[in-house]
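Run log // design_07
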């Protein structure tokens, strides 16, 4: 996992750090870190991180948040909560997710949950995603699996 961090231009973390030490280590190692806090994160992490991080990377307007609610209606809620966003990365379930939602004006919101490289929950493997953001476009999204 650290090799993937070292290779990335930007590392995105969608919360549930659980330990301040992990934030410190990742922040020190990543070229750029975009992150938010999750429901399992205490006061110290919440003081250092936003509930939703918003940045532009490669011309793509990115939002990173932990909670998006249940599967049913997720796209509709995300469109309402994140206007002007091209890509929403979220966590909470620790289950990989990759969908798109269309706005009335024809623009799209891509929703990604990379799963988790540390807490696989009900998944058979630990996971994370890589993708390319360039010239306002979201390139290939790859779901990676860590084998035990």
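design_07 sequence
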């Amino acid at each position: 996992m650290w090799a993937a961090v070292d290779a990335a231009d930007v590392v995105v973390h969608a919360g549930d750090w659980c330990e301040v030490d992990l934030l410190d280590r990742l922040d020190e190692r990543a070229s750029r870190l975009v992150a938010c806090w999750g429901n399992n994160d205490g006061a110290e992490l919440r003081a250092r991180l936003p509930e939703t991080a918003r940045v532009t990377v490669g011309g793509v307007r990115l939002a990173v948040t932990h909670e998006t609610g249940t599967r049913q209606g997720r796209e509709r809620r995300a469109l309402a909560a994140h206007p002007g966003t091209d890509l929403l990365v979220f966590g909470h379930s620790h289950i990989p997710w990759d969908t798109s939602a269309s706005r009335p004006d024809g623009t799209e919101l891509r929703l990604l949950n990379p799963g988790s490289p540390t807490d696989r929950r009900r998944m058979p493997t630990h996971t994370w995603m890589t993708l390319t953001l360039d010239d306002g476009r979201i390139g290939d999204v790859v779901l990676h699996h860590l084998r035990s």
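The CA atoms of residues 16 and 38 lie 4 Å apart.
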